[in-house]
Amino acid sequence: MRIIAILFICLPTFLAAQSAEEVLKSADAKIANNKFKEAVAELSAFLNSNANNKEVLNKRGYAKNQLGDFYGAIGDYNFALELDSTYSDALNNRGEAKFNLGDDYGAIEDFDKAIKHDPKSAEAYNNRGFAKYNIEDLQGAYFDFSKAIELDPKDADKYFNRAVIKAELEEYISAIDDYNKAIELDGSSADSYNFRGVAKYGIGQIDEAIKDYDKAISMEAKDPVMYENRALAKTDKEDFEGALADYTKSIELYSEDPDTYNLRGVIYYNLEDYDNAIADYDKAIELDPYNPVYYDNRALAKAAKEDYKGAVKDYSFSIELYPQDPETFHQRGLAKINMGDNYDGCLDLNTAVELGSEEAKDSIKELCK
């Protein structure tokens, strides 16, 4: 019993005597195993008697950030930076917390300072690239991701990040080169294949794009976007049955995207299944009643069923939402004429011509004599 009592009495002394290095090592092990709360508790216990240790404050801030306690994390980084305003790691980490809170400009300020004090921080450049991307500074993001690659050329994610920017800048061939490098370094990412497929689609390599989508889906079968991407490529090849199957799978995985219903409706329309097309457009409009394209598409399907009154109603909704589209006036005019309302129909055709429709001129010559 005495031995146990002695050990119990000595335990607090042992904990208090732990060095910062030992605490940080122990916390790192917990963080590596996603035990962030335990890491925060251990680091907090150390800070109770050693409040002015910037490394421990920074590490606790990191653990809090992983828990989603972004304000708490920023508080710890602030304390660390009061002790050392040039502490690059804390500046970078505080920038990440601000980024997570949606404060992109504040994050960039911190990443700027982190880079100033540590110009070889690939992580700070990479993080600043994300923040610049969010504020639509694509050229700035391109530079930062390139610099991150220069400093850390073995990280697949950095090539992937730059490839995304290149693709948005429509530099598809160069983007494909970066996706290739990302896959070479880490072939386990379904996203790399999926996004490479998008880039290949962008330069018209439809068959190659489908191969990449096939590979991505074989690795990650529950991502609705991948099925939608493949459906778009199949549509270009007029493989409407294949596209239909992919859109249906995408909707099965995520049923709240109005555009997927709209796109599947287009496939049904191409297959002359107008009832199912209208049902999909109905769902798209239910989810997003302010998109004029959905009304235009539903109107086309209704017109194909000779429901011209319903088509005129949908075109009218579309015109309320976007009154500058000449094609909507053109199509509404044709639907009115098919109903026998030549006067109003020809007025719509004239409006379409005023808005720039050349096709409406031909319709006027034929129908408005």
Automatic annotation (TrEMBL):
Name where the TPR repeats lie.
88-121, 122-155, 156-189, 190-223, 258-291
> Per the record, what is one GO cellular component?
cell outer membrane
Q: Which chain positions lie within coiled-coil regions?
A: none
Organism, as annotated: Fulvivirga lutea
Protein name as catalogued:
Tetratricopeptide repeat protein
Q: Which GO terms describe its biological process?
A: receptor-mediated virion attachment to host cell
* Key words of the record: Repeat, Signal, TPR repeat
- Top-level division of the source organism's lineage: Bacteria
Signal peptide location: 1-19
